[in-house]
Structures are given as structure tokens and as C-alpha cells.
Amino acid sequence: MVKSPICIARGRVLNTVRIIGGEWRRRVLRFPDAQGLRPTPDRVRETLFNWLGQDLDGLSCLDLFAGSGALGFEAASRGAAKVVMVEHAPKVAAALEENARLLAAGGRLQIVRADAVKFASSLGPDAPGFDVLFLDPPYKKGWIERLAPLLSRLLADDGMLYVEAESALENCGQWRTVRSGRAGQVFYHLMRNGEPDGAQ
Questions:
Q1: Closest by Cα among 134, 129, 116 to 189
Q2: What pTM did the predictor assign?
Q3: Distance between CA atoms of 200 and 182, rounded to whole angstroms?
Q4: pLDDT, tens digit, for every residue of 39-59?
């Protein structure tokens, strides 16, 4: 996705992403440039939330590489009861916190500044799993392979896993692809625990 600069603040070019559905539909969020940060395009997000169901009332979601916040804020806008957004880069995490304040999200959104693997490893085996996990890491860094063994700590047994990657994936750990698509160089997948691959 081409990021459009909208303003210069304190010497930084800020980029925008638009929420496309739910309570905050059409709200525009600003975020700074950062290496490897690429918001999920509108068309892909629309497909994803059609797969998940437009209404996420009561669900808990984890956005493990939050970046611009496009997926996490979209989930909260569509009714998710709890969205945890994990981001390691300080200035990007600060932008997430500022956007959460601007949206008056209250307790629905939790911003955590942490490394994704360390965050996943910190959760005990008895921690309640999330209903939806968004996994959109920087490409060609081995993140998906490192996180695959930790997914059972993060997801409920019937939880759904969304993964963006630079190539098509049949599975991620025990979560197997049931829906998939491609937009340019991005391959995106919806996975479920132990289910066979589904048609695109």
C-alpha cells in the first residue's frame, strides 16, 4: 500500500490509514514512518472482516505487530470487547497510544510496547487465549517461524489466526489455512486450528 503523507509535525512526515467499518468508520489515523511498516490495504481489510464477520461483539483480539494499528483499530471499531496491540518501535507505539486517545476507546484498547516473541513467551499456559490473532510481521525476518510454536499460548482452541506473508502458507503451527488471497506481493490467510486447507 502506498502511504500518503498528510502533514509534517516536528520535522516528521506523518502517514494516514482510514478505518473502513464500524463505530469509527471513515476516521483517519496518523502514524510515523518506520522500517517494515506497511498498513493492510483497505481492500484486504474488507475481505478479512467479511471472513471474520462484520460484528466482532464480545471477541478478544491480539494485533501482535500493530504498526499503524489498521487491523487492531478496525477490530475495536467493529465491536471487539478487547484489543491488545503490541508494537516494539517507540515512536510507532506512541502514535498508537495517541490514536487510541483520539478515538476515546477507553478500556477496549491496550497498547503494549514489547518484542512480539517476548510478549508471547511471557503468557503462561493457563492464560485465556484470544479469539482472533492478527499476525502481520516484517517480511523475511523469520518472525512467523519463531512464533508458530507459541500460538497455543496466544489463541483459544477455536480462535482464528490471520497471517500476512511474502508467500502462500498452508499452515502456521497447528493452524491451517481455510481462506486465502493475494494483493500484489502480499499473501493473506485466515487459519483455524487443525482444519484442512480451504479453497480461495
A1: 134
A2: 0.87
A3: 10
A4: 788 889 999 999 998 678 999
